[in-house]
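Letters spell out the chain; the tokens describe the backbone. To illustrate:

===
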Amino acid sequence: MRTLLAAATSLIALTAAAQAQPDGWSEAEIAALDTSIQQMMREEQVVGLAYALVDHGEVSHVAAFGYRNLEQAWPLETDTVMYGASLTKAAFAYLVLQLVDEGLIDLDTSIAEYLPRPLPDYATDDDDWSDLAGQPQWRDLTARIILSNGTGFANFRWLEEDGRLRFHFAPGERQTYSAEGFYILQHVIEAGLGLDVRDEMQQRIFDRFGMTDTSMQWRPDFRDNLADGYAMDGTFEPHDERSGVSAAGSMDTSIADQARMWAGFVAGDGLSEAARTEFVAPSQIIRSPSQFPTLTTEEDPRAAAIGLAAGLGVITYQDETGHWFDKGGHNPWTGNRAICHEETQRCIVLLANSVRAELIYPAITELAMGPNPVPWWWVYPEQFVD
């Protein structure tokens, strides 16, 4: 990592200055960034990487390099369908905030108020919350606590020794990243409010931002232009056809669509000023030394130094230039990251079908955004050496 950052130093002067320029990145800066990214990809054997720049809430540049399938030498394009992974959580949070604006749900009201019967009474194959019987803490869950990952659950129940869902901390006590919480809020919206999350995401997020190659559920037309995955050791993983809708991570998408989505998010399109403020405001203080493992009680002073906290579906932090927020999406063959600066409404959005791309994201981000407080030690602790 230090080698990559050192190699990038000569180019930082080209792009760091752009942060203060009202006209954004110049053509020369973008060309230098494109060249540098491709060089780093070769050095780290990254199969495919796509990225976008957003400036003052508008898409400034979109590019894709490498392959969507290395074996077939099929190039990765800006409209290639890729896993969104946990970037889905930020999009879902934005949807929930629209429902807040319409008075359909309140961020700080117990989820029990929206369900026709107690949550543990739901025990179908798709929505089984019977593990929470005898755990009355579920009534303390709110949309804010869930979206800021303060549920107190493990990330997934299958990580528990007995495979059963349980509270490790009281809701709101600590930030504990959990897909299970997002599943619960999806259930509340569907069973309690009578809304279909797939349809609502399509209409309120994907259609709003012109995301024609994005869906919460597999579409047959994706098959001709999708990205297969590659693990850290280069192992191939075909892109699967996900039939289920998951607020925590089922979004298929492209870099062109993600560019439009994050441009909309940073500009606050579709939300009231109050709701947009809630999106990136600190809702749950983060004290942990890393995002994973999720249930640690250890603390790291670097978190407090940048005001590290969970917003709603995103994380947020500060430096002398102002307020930053971001979201990642990761699995063994996917590495995604969107990083935005509030005051300039600038973002860099990174999607990769090769998890090795995460090795070069810090260098790319510094080239594009200039000096920044992104807590790489927290998001990629196994890769980043301080």
